[in-house]
C-alpha cells in the first residue's frame, strides 16, 4: 500500500495550490508548491532572509502541511531545504509569484528553495460525492465511513 500511496501523493500534489511551510522552528507561512516529480522535490519561491531561505543555506529541516479538498490530499510532509538555481527559477516562475515581488523574477529579494521530502503522513480522500455517499452509508448502516487512503510513506 505504501508505494501506491506514494504514487497517489505525487499525483495529488500536482493539484495542490497552497500549504503551510515551516522552517527553522518558526511559524508556518502559506506557500505555493511547484512539484518536480522527476526529482522527487517541491520548489518554493520565497524571499531572501525568510526562514525557508535561511534553512536552505544550511540544508535545514522543514515541514510542509497540506489540506487541499480539491486535490483530495491532506499531508504532513517532512524534509530538507536546499538553495535553488537561477535556471530552475526561470522554469517555474509564474504570475502568482510575480505578484509578491515588485521587480518580478529579477527582484533582488527573490529566492528559490528546494524541498526534498524524506517522509510524510498522507490522507488521500475520495471526491466530495463519494465522501458524501460514505457519510450517508455510515449513518444508515451504523458503520464508520471509508474516507480514502491513509498511511506513512518514505521517499
Number of helices: 5
Instruction: Write down the CATH topology.
Output: Pnp Oxidase, Chain A
Number of domains: 1
Strand content range: 35-45%
Helix content: 25-40%
Derived from helix and strand composition plus strand pairing, the structural class reads alpha+beta
Let me know the average pLDDT: 89
The main pleated sheet reads as:
8 strands, antiparallel
Order of helices and strands: HEEEEHEEHHEHE
What is the CATH domain class?
A: Mainly Beta
Distance between the termini: 14 Å
Poorly predicted spans: none
Categorize the overall geometry.
Answer: elongated
CATH superfamily: Electron Transport, Fmn-binding Protein, Chain A
Domain General stress protein FMN-binding split barrel: 6-145
InterPro entries: Split_barrel_FMN-bd (IPR012349), Stress-Dev_Protein (IPR052917), YdaG_split_barrel_FMN-bd (IPR038725)
Pfam family, one: Pyrid_ox_like
Protein name: General stress protein
Description:
It is elongated and about 60 Å long. The protein has one domain (2-154): Pnp Oxidase, Chain A (Roll), CATH 2.30.110. The relative contact order is 0.20. A hairpin with a 5-residue loop joins strand 1 and strand 2 (29-31). With 155 residues, the protein is an alpha+beta fold. It has helices spanning 2-13, 51-57, 86-92, 95-98, 128-141, and strands spanning 19-23, 29-31, 34-36, 41-47, 61-68, 73-83, 110-125, 148-154. This is General stress protein. It comes from Roseivivax halodurans JCM 10272. Residues 6-145 form the General stress protein FMN-binding split barrel domain. InterPro entries: Split_barrel_FMN-bd, Stress-Dev_Protein, YdaG_split_barrel_FMN-bd.
Amino acid at each position: 500500500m505504501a508505494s501506491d500511496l506514494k504514487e497517489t501523493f505525487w499525483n495529488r500534489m500536482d493539484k495542490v495550490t497552497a500549504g503551510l511551510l515551516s522552517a527553522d522552528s518558526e511559524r508556518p507561512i502559506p506557500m505555493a508548491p511547484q512539484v518536480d516529480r522527476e526529482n522527487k522535490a517541491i520548489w518554493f519561491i520565497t524571499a531572501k532572509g525568510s526562514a525557508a531561505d535561511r534553512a536552505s543555506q544550511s540544508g535545514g529541516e522543514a515541514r510542509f502541511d497540506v489540506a487541499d479538498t480539491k486535490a483530495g490530499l491532506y499531508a504532513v510532509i517532512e524534509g530538507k531545504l536546499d538553495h535553488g538555481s537561477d535556471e530552475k527559477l526561470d522554469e517555474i516562475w509564474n504570475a502568482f509569484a510575480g505578484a509578491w515581488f515588485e521587480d518580478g523574477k529579477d527582484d533582488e529579494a527573490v529566492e528559490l528553495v528546494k524541498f526534498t521530502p524524506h517522509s510524510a503522513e498522507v490522507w488521500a480522500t475520495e471526491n466530495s460525492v463519494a465522501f458524501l455517499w460514505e457519510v450517508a452509508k455510515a449513518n444508515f448502516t451504523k458503520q464508520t465511513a471509508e474516507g480514502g487512503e491513509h498511511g506513512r510513506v518514505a521517499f
